[in-house]
Design brief:
homodimer, about 350 residues, alpha/beta, Rossmann fold, 3 domains, 6-stranded parallel beta sheet, DNA-binding
Chain lengths: ~350, ~350
DNA sequence: GTGAAAGCGCTAACAT
DNA sequence: ATGTTAGCGCTTTCAC
């Protein structure tokens, strides 16, 4: 049953050499119309398809991209994964998935495993890379691009939204909205997205002569965000923020739930809430979350472009940091300043 | 830079043959402690790791599993993907992802592509398989298991929750709740989940001498579900259902939104809503959706078990249909019958 | 227990 | 344009 059909078998049936068969199935090769005809016929009769692995061995290109991803519970990532996979598929590549927790040891061994598969490139989504890991990949000649993370590492490209500018927009929006006490709920402190968003947000406040009223850490985790929200808001009206920027939508939606259903507060009546990402759920009628959009399509496009460029011309391609503009999406979870226009 | 370290290089440095190196890195092989020692030392000095692809060529096992998946916007699937990938990783396999739309032509070519990678097995999540595709996989000796889909095809295993029994539970619950007019919003009619859930639901109603008051099709799609919900509920109170079973949570949450925020109805005051899947969002405070739980962990466990069994003993392993019990999770989106106990 | 040798299925010079 | 030849990096008989 498990009889593999080889190029050799096709060659015999078509009455040509095995390399002729190879040429017919190799994009940039030359064969006479007659040969092509015969080979195609024999191949389809036999149900022959080239073995990608064998091809990879000799050509040195596996047409596989390793994708490392940590949290699929943050809706932004499934969306990104789907789009990444589709874009890569369209370019003739396929995605080998590696789940990694943020634990350093784990991510280390995960990257080793990826390399074992001779992938042509690696995309790290939501995970950071140690610098020795980076050199390991470089030594192996495998380009890496960071998706939604930034690190200033030699030879590593990164694609992010403009987290800093996006968060500034939020700061300005909240200040213009006339809020008195503005809070911030942080993500995991090890993440560049967290740091950049907080920095941009603080900048905007500080330029308005304001500062953060209170700050908690939600770590991008569901449980810790519940705790953070209660900690920040379960107190008398005068002591709690009347506006809060939550470092991503996943956490912001949880904060809205705590506010409305645990504490009986009105959003945005009592508290304005703003998130970051614009995941699908953010637009749902139960939330109508004001947020900053990470344009997944563009981010994916740039990621794939950077990666393929590094693969196709390893010598000339320079690692780059692409920053995608991130627009404020005004919905109904935060008070809108008078006369505000997009 | 891109100097690959080969077993040959390790062999030279360790002063042994290349096959000795291979044996040291092959689980079931024999080598003297002395050799192991020397080889390990040389290998780690050189940073050697076996090339999985080369190993795959000769051994005939690639340690890759092809995963075909269609909708990552239904939260059940990212969750499943994450768990599947983790479980497979733990067993020494890795997941090669293929996104497929439900269009027949596409799925056909996707499976061909998977086979080209010489995967050791295939998991089809949320997609159906034509019977000629099935024979193609069988001819290639690649076992297939359907995840969350069932088809009565020779030689194909399938793992599902007990959709029929789960949906019966819902029917009984709604009847016991004293609802007058019970509606049903269907998923994509091509899906076995849709068919089984509807069948179980109708059975329960019919055993109580009842039948469905109205039915619309949401196709598991966001847009079509909005339309279906409006169609079913945008009418006078006496003409619309006072309870509805929606074929999955993804759609049920949308229906709740339409009911509450577009039509100004109360859930469960005016309408009881029940879903199926128990995705994370279903438990959120804004929804508190009563639903039936698909136990992703168990489903994944059985899927991996069935697949690995087929891979490890192709001759003896019989294709099987595993059905996981699916409990009703009572929350707050549907009126609870008096005296109801779990 | 260990080395030599034969491929796995294919591509890429190299001739012709 | 086509066939011949030499591997890609590894596992696996087969002798010793």
């Amino acid at each position: 049953m498990a009889e593999r059909v080889t190029a050799q078998m096709v060659a015999e049936r078509a009455g040509v050499s095995q390399s002729a068969v190879s040429r017919v199935f190799t994009p940039g090769a030359s064969a006479s119309p007659k040969t092509v005809e015969k080979v195609r016929k024999a191949a389809s009769e036999l149900g022959y398809r080239p073995n990608v692995l064998a091809r990879a061995m000799v050509s040195g290109r596996s047409r596989m991209i390793g994708l490392v991803v940590a949290y699929l519970d943050n809706q932004f990532y499934p969306e990104a994964l789907e789009k990444l996979s589709n874009a890569l598929q369209a370019a003739g590549y396929h995605v080998l998935v590696f789940m990694a927790s943020q634990k350093a040891g784990n991510i280390n061994s995960v990257v080793e495993e990826i390399l074992d598969y001779q992938v042509d490139g690696i995309i790290m989504a939501s995970v950071a890379l140690s610098s020795d890991l980076t050199s390991r990949c470089q030594a192996a000649g495998v380009p890496v691009v960071l998706f939604n993370r930034y690190q200033d590492l030699e030879g590593t490209s990164a694609v992010t939204s403009d987290n800093r500018a996006g968060a500034r927009l939020i700061g300005e929006f909240l200040v213009a909205g006339g809020h008195e006490r503005i809070g911030y709920i942080a993500g995991w402190e090890g993440a560049s997205t967290q740091r950049d968003r907080e920095a941009g947000f603080r900048e905007a406040l500080s330029e308005a002569g304001r500062e953060i009223h209170s700050r908690e850490v939600g770590d991008f985790s569901t449980d810790r965000t519940f705790a953070a929200a209660r900690q920040m808001f379960d107190r008398p009206a005068e002591q709690r923020p009347d506006a809060v920027f939550v470092a991503n939508d996943h956490m912001a939606l949880i904060v809205m739930d705590v506010l409305r259903y645990e504490l009986g507060l009105s959003v945005p009546g009592d508290v304005s809430v703003v998130g970051y990402d614009d995941v699908p759920t953010a637009g749902w009628l139960a939330y109508r979350l004001t947020t900053v959009r990470q344009r997944a399509n563009l981010m994916v496009e740039e990621t794939v472009k950077a990666l393929l460029e590094s693969i196709d011309s390893p010598e000339t391609a320079r690692p780059r940091h692409v920053t995608i503009e991130a627009p404020l999406i005004v919905r109904a979870s935060a008070r809108v300043p008078e006369g505000w226009t997009t």
